[in-house]
UniProtKB/TrEMBL annotation:
<dbReference type="InterPro" id="IPR038614">
    <property type="entry name" value="GK_N_sf"/>
</dbReference>
<keyword id="KW-0808">Transferase</keyword>
<feature type="domain" description="MOFRL-associated">
    <location>
        <begin position="8"/>
        <end position="227"/>
    </location>
</feature>
<dbReference type="InterPro" id="IPR039760">
    <property type="entry name" value="MOFRL_protein"/>
</dbReference>
<dbReference type="InterPro" id="IPR037035">
    <property type="entry name" value="GK-like_C_sf"/>
</dbReference>
<dbReference type="Pfam" id="PF13660">
    <property type="entry name" value="DUF4147"/>
</dbReference>
<dbReference type="InterPro" id="IPR007835">
    <property type="entry name" value="MOFRL"/>
</dbReference>
<keyword id="KW-0418">Kinase</keyword>
<protein>
    <submittedName>
        <fullName>Glycerate kinase</fullName>
    </submittedName>
</protein>
<feature type="domain" description="MOFRL">
    <location>
        <begin position="307"/>
        <end position="413"/>
    </location>
</feature>
<dbReference type="InterPro" id="IPR025286">
    <property type="entry name" value="MOFRL_assoc_dom"/>
</dbReference>
<dbReference type="Pfam" id="PF05161">
    <property type="entry name" value="MOFRL"/>
</dbReference>
<dbReference type="GO" id="GO:0016301">
    <property type="term" value="F:kinase activity"/>
</dbReference>
Amino acid sequence: MTDEKAFLASLFEAAVAAADPERALRAALPEAPEGRTVVIGLGKGAAQLARAFETLWEGPLEGVVVTRYGYAAPCARLQVMEAAHPVPDAAGLAASAALFKAVEGLTEKDLVVALVCGGGSALLPAPPDGLTLEDEQALNQALLASGAPIGVMNAIRKHASRIKGGRLAAACAPAKVVSLIVSDVPGDDPAQVASGPTVPDAVDAAAALAMVDAWNIALPERILAHMRSDASAAPKPEDPRFARNEVRVIASARLSLEAAAAKAEAAGFPAVILSDAMEGEARDVGRVHAAMAREVVARGRPFAAPVVMLSGGETTVTLRGKGGRGGRNTEFLLAFAHAIDGVVGIHALAADTDGIDGTEDNAGAFADGTSAARLRAAGGDAMAALSRNDAWGAFDLISDLFAPGPTGTNVNDFRAVLIKAE
């Protein structure tokens, strides 16, 4: 499988390169202001975006960006802070305070450039009056365990925060805010990326509470009480403080998948993009992809082999077991591997484009029709591992983890299925 692994990894690299920070920013730089230029940034790729912005921006600038521990990059003029992900910590509280401090006292002649990418929801805890960091940690843990899609989780987060849901942009007024966004959400809605600290949306608290009920999310009572109060209201898109602001999505799953498709076709493999916005339970999406791959092998439909099937989006994992390790991409792939057990000619990679899937240091994993059998031979079992959410352990056992390291960007899940003709 060595050649297939190298090929699939090259598609991942093409997808990540399409979201390269300097390349993405170059065509989206705003005009220099008459006054100050203040940069604020947040997300797992924020430091790399900040470093690229420094390289491209010719005038003076200042500001603060916040990224995950271990994801910092050296910047000459901008302060880089680190905090915890996926569960917020005290360093995140300090980072939120630093961002608010950076935008104090601005005038209408000043410009705020917001560099926003995935991961910012957890990196910037800012509990409202009456709530604590512990409350926000409990909120995140409940959301992560719920299996709810990212849009639902972010809609709920916005109503228990002083910084999300456009509130950070409101604090910048009367300065103009230009948000340059690397989208990691299905559909590329900029108000959903990092829970929209600089982009308001129209979802109100009543709608967010309805989502809590619909997904049966066990939120702490203190959070629920706050969401039911007037204090949870977020600024609306028509708020005059946002009138001059601009929002630009500079990189996304769509663009990255198109780059991977071009790479595959240049290598002689026709490519199809199934969707850049897939959601759902990771193991279920894995089984659907496996069914399509088996159909290609058995009947030559809906595509003829050889072919590369590509997809993106953000699946979810409902925690069922204890002690398991992994993330949504490895869980997707373990279910996929089980469903193609014994089928010849199918090879797959599923990975998070930020380089980290879940709690460990891998981006995802590789699988083929021999994966489940090799796992059994090593003393493991795919279904047993799925039952305890231990996809990482399964792929580690057969040495099929994919660990390229942090990539400096984040445009969500990347899935590539190579189906070779006999």
